[in-house]
Amino acid sequence: MWWKFRKHRVAVWSATVLLVLYLTAVFCEFLAPYSLSFQETSYTYAPPQRLHFSSEDGFHFWPFVYGLKGQRDPETLQKSYQEDLTRKYPIRLLVKGPTYKFWGLFKMDRHLIGVDSDGTLFLLGTDSMGRDLLSRIIYGSRISLTIGLLGVSLSFFLGLSIGAVSGYFGGWVDNLIQRMIEILRSFPQIPLWLALSAALPSSWSSLQIYLGITVVLSIIGWTGLARQVRGKILSLREEDFATAALLVGASQTRIMWHHLLPSFMSHIIVSLTLAIPAMIIGETSLSFLGLGLRPPITSWGVLLKEAQNMRTVAFYPWLLSPAVFVILTVLVFNFMGDGLRDAADPYER
Amino acid sequence: MNEEPLLQVRNLKKYFPIKQGFFNQVVGQIRAVDGISFDLYHGECLGLVGESGSGKTTVGRSVLRALSPTDGQVLFRLDDRSYDLATATEGTLRPLRQHMQMIFQDPYSSLNPRMTVFDIIGEPLLVNGVSDKSEREQRVQELLTQVGLKPEHMRRYPHAFSGGQRQRIGIARALALHPKLIVADEPVSALDVSVQAQVLNLLQELQENFQLTYLFIAHDLSVVGHISDRIAVMYAGKLVELGATDELFHQPRHPYTEALLAAVPVPEPSRDRNRTLLSGEVADPANLPSGCVFHPRCPYAEDRCKTEVPEFREIATGHLARCHLVE
Amino acid sequence: MKNTLLSIQNLQTHFFLDEGTVRAVNGVNLEIPLGETMSIVGESGCGKSVTAFSVLQLIASPGRIVSGKIVFHRSNSDDVVLTDLTEGGERIRAIRGSEIAMIFQEPMTSLSPVHTVGNQIMEALTLHTNLGKTEARLQVIDMMQRVGIPNPVERFNQYPHQMSGGLRQRTIIAMALVCQPKLLIADEPTTALDVTIQAQILQLMRDLQTEFEMSILLITHDLGVVAEMADQVAVMYMGRIVEQAEMTNLFTNPQHPYTQALLESIPRRGKQPKTELKVIAGSVPNPFEQITGCPFHPRCEEFSDGRCNQGDPPILSQLGTNQHVACFIREKDKIQ
């Protein structure tokens, strides 16, 4: 199956992009130019700084940014920024910056990229409190990307076992489970999520809320997988090799685990890959509506919530950039999932 | 044959409910097997012949309890004791299963494509307590040789083999536990002519070497006739004729058997191409005619045939038929 | 000299796959006489179906007719070289369904599940004639009657799933014959049917053949069906015809070792039961393999080293009236 996957160019590229995204999530503290809470109050709502490669001195191989000079318009009290051409700050690697705790454990202060401490590197601008948006997006990726994984694992476990039982045993067990699934699925998803997450006590710690949201998201999520598993098992159950196993005396458990499930493992993997983006969008939506994660936890949805007004769209559009990351992630997951699905197509003859 | 039969099937029935509606209400029955009785003696090969919808495959699976019969008895004789397979519990069945195995029709779906040949043939052994791997390996190699394959083949996967070879693997699996009874469900129908011959020869050889008893299910009369001692003909879930192969072929007593024999194309150029053929469609087991199930197609049908179900009667020694007109 | 309806000359149809080239049809010469049934018989992989598909340019990529000619001799001495026609072009489409028709093995997949049976048969008519709807409908019902579909007026509006296998195959035959083609190509038309239905369908085909003065190219693996239907028989092995004869000759006096072995490996009623069947040694070779000399030599009982495994494969040479064999040994015997 992996050989076939490799043929699918787009899928392979997508997988690479995903790998990069997840690595970013793992090493976010190191990769972000600033720490999560770092703010420069003199630079609120600063637009993204452009990287330059050439100045009046000619072409520089190494990119740099100009310093920012802020001014306030005396009438509208709007802040506006210009590049201060007199100050040049080349991008430096492994720069000393604000301190952070790597994975919450190790105190470090080195960042992959940054500029000298009297300069600013706001590649995606800043928000209302002068916090670097790019750094916050990078930190946010950790939450947004992993919540999907956790939720899907839960769905996977539930979906697989309930689906298998439903499909293999049939009869009233199957009937009961299927009706239950139908009832669950007939709930409108977003209102249900909203209701459940509103029910989460606000006194819970960030971690508890994070886990709570995961559970909420998987409550409906498992039903899709369960149905697929059930369908597959129903068809495989009648296959001759399953009957043969029965006739030599294999127990039903053995038939289910050893014969039936491995036959469609690849399909399940594909399903999962395609279920993760749904979870990511779920979390983003909930947080965007204010009913999912809340600050101080930072996820892309939380970041988008802060951009939730007309002023932002009109004057500070860069605050909407977390949406680009969401879109990117969902797209690459889908492409990779497509590639996996094509590769997994049973071609056994 | 004076000895006790190995298998006695009495009034076997298997109905499949037809469900409709939201609550899966049962609105009718598919009478796949509708009261079959026959005896199977040690060491013989009984052919079971019929077209689609006749119920022959269902009989095979019901006899081995891959399906649970709706009614009737399947008495299996082992060591002077008789066990009713139709109603036995899983607990009683488990140790009996090793004595009866099945060979399947489709060489592609009967072998798990993700298991090696060793795993496939070794599974019966593993499941029945042979936990020592080297012991299993030895036995698997032995079996592979017996079916005409090379012992080295056990490391490979089914997709590396041709249809005929896969059938041999299936046969080796069936033989693993030294069964007494083998139900062969269309074992050569999916194979090419020349491969068919090889597998048929193998089945005969194995029967002689291991004193096996076969229930040979097929739709091809010539194939069944070649390997069977006796033949049973099924139509729409019922047995319509049962007798010794030679007698059945030369003196068929049921109009359906006669029609089958006339219909089967044979590689004989001298045959009259304009002989009478059976008209009408094969009976639908969900919607069976009244009286004799064959009457709508029968060229000899009388009034009686439309209302009365004929009995399965012995007309000559060992030769039975279900027809009002043979009496 | 009988009139030939279709002549296949040195046909080569190859499939170009990643693993190599499969010469599915490797030099086939065949003449189908007017009004008679020519049967191509062989086991799976011998190339019989591919030959049939090549006639109507139905070979899909990665396959292609590499060389050879197929000439359709129309009644008014107007020959059409089918292989020259553009694939998917107007001319070949005009011929398909009207002058040369084809039926396949699986009746269920050959019919569209969402159109009525009547409409499907009518489509064949309306594509090739200028008949109005009413007139066409009448002709369709007439055709349905002729193929033995009971209650054709009612059945016209039925869907395929409402019919049995036998009726579906009759529908397909109706579709194929509604324009009264000169040639019917039938690829394993009865393999998927029950025995008693098979016999009915074969009889139907014979009756319609006489009625329409049609030729049939019958592809099958079943020698019994050949005996029922064929006037002429061609036996194929590994993409080549190894024996071609008048039907009775083939059965009473088979010449090619493959034909002989095939006939002896079939279980028959007349034979002594429970005797061992003759088995052809070895197995069908890998389709990518190129065998020097006669393709059958690795399995042949009469193999002669030095003669059979050298050079080009043998070509069909005449042995008797209406019997041709492609075998070095037989040729040699004949000369002597």
In short:
The complex is a heterotrimer of chains A (349), B (327) and C (336). With 327 residues, chain B is α/β, with parallel strands linked by helices.
Word description of this protein:
The complex is a heterotrimer of chains A (349), B (327) and C (336). By secondary structure, chain A is α+β, with helices and mostly antiparallel strands. Helices cover 58% and strands 15% of the residues of chain A. Chain A has 13 helices and 5 strands. A 3-stranded antiparallel β-sheet of chain A has the order 1-2-3, with no helix packed on it. A two-stranded antiparallel sheet of chain A has the order 4-5. In chain A, a hairpin with a 6-residue loop joins strand 2 (58-72) and strand 3 (79-90). Chain A is elongated and about 85 Å long. Chain B has 327 residues and is an alpha/beta fold. Chain B is built from 10 helices and 12 strands. Chain B has helices at residues 56-63, 90-96, 117-127, 133-146, 163-175, 193-210, 221-227, 245-250, 255-263, 303-307, and strands at 7-20, 25-40, 45-49, 71-78, 81-84, 100-103, 181-185, 213-218, 230-235, 238-244, 313-316, 319-321. In chain B, strand 1 and strand 2 form a beta hairpin. In chain B, helix 4 (133-146) packs across helix 5. Chain B starts with 6 loop residues before the first strand and ends in a 6-residue tail after the last strand. Chain C is of the alpha/beta class and 336 residues long. Chain C contains 12 helices and 12 strands. The longest helix of chain C is centred in the middle third of the chain and has 18 residues, at 195-212. Chain C is globular. The model of chain C has no long low-confidence stretch (mean pLDDT 88). The interface between B and C is large, with 43 and 47 residues.
